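Figure S7 source data.
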Amino acid sequence: MDDEGEHMRRYSRFVWGMYYLRTRFPTMSVTSWGRSPAHNKTLPGSVPDSLHLEWCAADVVYDPGTQPELGTLQAAARQVGIKVRREKDHDHLEQAGDFPSLEVDHV
Ligand SMILES: [Zn+2]
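Tokens for the predicted zinc ion complex:
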């Protein structure tokens, strides 16, 4: 297995997916992306196996009054292999599928 190539493919898909979503939801901003393990530990509600540690998760917020309906966002994100979880003050977006194995490519 070409481990480096697989990581690059996975990571590139995530970044491309985020780019796609910012074109669909242009009022979106990223507030948290990759994290060091030490930084991750300091955050309330963070988990030790967070995909933020793999730089395959991002937290986003929206310009006031423009937060998309969750189902609409989830459907758009699913098209590019990203899962969405709505938190109190942000949406958590992460690469779908287990790391590092890739799902069957359906994008
Ligand atoms: Zn998050």
